[in-house]
Specification:
binds coenzyme A, 17 strands, 9-stranded mixed β-sheet, 12 helices, alpha+beta
Length: 391
């Protein structure tokens, strides 16, 4: 932990979408064996945003209960991590700031480095709180992952947001020093500005991810981090949940440990519960893993949790967090389970319609039909401006 002050996650809240498409439906459409999805990549279903939902509405939905519980008086910074930005200039967090009625004396900024942005936001927030422990930082990670219809990446789509209140004397998780860092210039996954769907070299991305696991762990241990055996569980970025198993398998190998499936399942098992049914939420995925672990595991008080954030391109970070005794009283487990269970199943035709939807770029007035039953919605696009409203 930085200095003598314990800093970390004081509260954590997740949100997702109105709709869900099962992998059984996708498999029936494209002829793939459903076992390839359910067991091969570890995905059962994917969240699909309604036409009036996006990264802003999910972010505001995730953050609203945090502001409701703690107030906004101490929040002086909002960090919004995403790789599916809705504007090239304006930070999406400003829309959230407005929807939640946060004070004007706030700095709001957007961060990007593929799926690593959320972990970067958390680390930057810790530095800000270290400078002034009276301040809190609202870190939001929100993304909609989209690949071309019929592509290999299609089965790994998803959408979610995680909001975290970072503060001194946190109630849930203390984030510790040191961090292990790794950057390498690889083109494993990217999205040029002129595309709405990402491009991915799937096999390259898996091997780049594993190389990053090795690189971050090496730097982490060289900087005096905990030995492998000190960790109770590991939260990995999960582009698909089998990746967490592959990553941990690789880490055990690198450490010269005996690898057996039971040891891997013990380390990552609980962390995949939300990602398996929500799909890849890019920046939010690592923290959905944390939410699932906290919501589903037996008491983890004072246990060390390892975090591996990987963002294609590629930047990665390994760090430790220690669970704060009494954390269970602060969790939102019932609300998180409802985020998953409240979604409505859609058929392939509806999914395809949503996937192919695009706003006209003519600057006209384009209202969006009412679909979401969440608390915030995208009302439309008018004069090239996105209009958001509470529902
Ligand atoms: N039952 C069980 N498992 C099956 C199966 C079946 N019927 N059919 C295939 N599988 C397994 C394969 O053996 C493979 O497992 P392995 O990786 O352990 O060998 C897995 O399912 C996937 O099969 P594969 O043929 O490799 O699938 P694919 O060519 O469709 O690609 C991804 C899978 C993950 C590479 C692809 O979905 C992708 O590119 N996703 C995006 C990755 C990403 O987001 N990267 C960026 C961030 S890290």
């Amino acid at each position: 932990m930085p200095g003598e002050i314990a800093i970390g996650i004081h509260d954590l809240s997740i949100a997702s979408t109105e709709y869900v498409l099962t992998h059984a439906t996708l498999a029936a459409q494209n002829g793939a064996p459903v076992g390839k999805y359910e067991r091969g990549i570890g995905q059962l279903s994917m969240s699909v945003p309604a036409l009036d939902e996006d990264i802003v509405t999910m972010a505001a939905t995730a953050a609203a209960p945090i502001v409701e519980r703690h107030g906004a008086d101490r929040i002086r910074t909002v960090v919004f991590a995403t790789e599916t930005a809705v504007d090239q200039a304006k930070a999406a967090g400003i829309h959230v700031h407005s929807l939640l009625g946060l004070p004007s004396a706030t700095r709001v900024v957007e961060l990007k480095q593929a799926c690593y942005g959320g972990a970067a936001g958390l680390q930057f927030a810790i530095s800000l709180v270290h400078r002034d422990p009276a301040e809190q930082v609202l870190v939001i990670a929100s993304d909609v992952s989209r690949y071309d219809l019929g592509s290999a990446g299609e089965a790994t789509q998803g959408a979610a947001a995680v909001a975290m209140l970072v503060s001194a004397a946190p109630a849930v998780l203390r984030v510790e020093d040191p961090s292990g860092l790794f950057t390498a210039d690889v083109m494993d996954f990217w999205r040029p500005n002129y595309r709405t769907t990402a491009l991915v070299d799937g096999r390259e991305s898996i091997s780049a991810y594993l190389q990053a696991v090795e690189g971050t762990w090496k730097d982490y241990t060289e900087r005096g981090g905990h030995p492998l055996g000190a960790f109770r569980a590991f939260c990995y970025h999960q582009p698909f949940t089998r990746m967490a198993h592959k990553a941990h398998h690789h880490l055990l190998n690198c450490c010269g440990r005996e690898v057996d499936d039971a040891a891997v399942a013990h380390a990552v098992g609980h962390t995949t519960a939300y990602n398996a049914v929500i799909g890849n939420s890019y920046t939010a995925s690592l923290f959905l893993a944390l939410a699932a672990l906290l919501d589903n595991a037996d008491d983890l008080s004072e246990q060390a949790i390892g975090f591996l954030s990987y963002g294609s391109g590629a930047v990665a970070e390994f760090f430790a967090g220690r669970v704060v005794p009494g954390y269970r009283a602060h969790l939102r487990s019932a609300a998180h389970r409802a985020v998953v269970s409240r979604r409505h199943d859609i058929d392939y035709a509806r999914y395809r319609e949503i996937h192919e939807h695009a706003f006209p770029a003519d600057g006209g007035h384009h209202p969006v039909p009412h679909e979401t039953t969440g608390p915030f919605r995208l009302a439309g696009l008018s004069g090239h401006k996105r209009i958001y409203e509470p529902r």
